[in-house]
Write a structure and sequence with these properties.
- By secondary structure, the protein is an alpha+beta fold.
- The protein has 2 domains: 3-107, no CATH class; 109-194.
- It is 45% helix and 14% strand.
- The chain has helices at 3-17, 46-55, 66-71, 76-79, 97-108, 110-119, 123-129, 147-157, 161-170, 186-195, and strands at residues 25-27, 34-38, 84-86, 90-94, 134-135, 140-143, 175-178, 181-184.
- A hairpin with a 4-residue loop joins β5 (134-135) and β6 (140-143).
- α1 runs antiparallel to α5 (97-108) and α6 (110-119) runs antiparallel to α10.
- It is elongated, with a radius of gyration of 19 Å.
- The relative contact order is 0.16.
């Protein structure tokens, strides 16, 4: 996945996920399960608008493991709906769309996530940085003044670490700065890897085109 492909999906996710930044939407449009916006209020580059159009052709269940949906008693009227519905003036985004977009990107970067968790436990990493790292059961942290050095180092060891770091810091709360420390929520990263079992991304490729 290229940065351009990542960004067009990340833009839509951030817009839908940060509802406190904008209030020009309504609940329950298109007979329920949708949050609706006036089309004229949306401001995206053309590739993100194309993504929105593509998502009108895809149902919620197309992204999920159907056994997971049924075993958790999701009603068919919920998961058999398209992710996006549009009229001449309004666009509706299914309530599950932000979750699906996040895990779609996380799945694309799963290799980076797995390598990150493994690498920070290696002798190489510990020998270079153990004196700076504070480790806990759920996270690890280091002084933010060392962030540029560590970011460059991890980028040289882990493919697509820049995009993965952006996902942790800007699309979730699994990586952030607090006071003078930078924190990574390693347990939550592990949980996200496990949660991928709920999804089935094998037949859909929205980072490039709908298959």
């Amino acid at each position: 996945m290229t940065e351009e492909e990542y960004n067009k999906i990340a833009r839509l996710f951030q817009y839908l996920n940060n509802t406190h930044l904008h209030s020009n939407y309504n609940y329950g449009g298109f007979n329920g399960n949708y949050r609706t916006y006036n089309i004229d209020d949306l401001d995206f580059p053309s590739d993100t608008f194309q993504l929105i159009d593509d998502l009108t052709l895809i149902r919620v269940q197309d992204f999920y493991n159907i056994d997971y949906l049924k075993s958790n008693n999701f009603p068919e009227r919920f998961y058999n709906n398209p992710l996006v519905q549009k009229s001449d003036t309004v666009v509706g985004f299914h309530y599950q769309l932000p979750t699906i977009l996040f895990y779609y990107l996380f799945n694309k970067l799963k290799k980076s996530a797995v390598l990150f968790l493994k690498f920070i436990e290696t002798d190489e990493f510990k020998s270079n940085y153990s004196h700076l790292i504070t480790r806990g059961e759920y996270d690890f942290e280091y002084p933010s003044v060392m962030h540029d050095e560590l970011f460059k180092y991890l980028s040289s060891k882990i493919p697509n670490f820049g995009m993965f770091h952006h996902l942790l810091n800007w699309l979730s709360e699994m990586g952030y700065s607090s006071g003078s420390m930078t924190i990574y929520k390693t347990k939550r990263i592990e949980n996200c890897i496990e949660n991928l079992e709920r999804f089935d991304f094998n037949n859909i490729n929205i980072s490039n085109q709908v298959l």
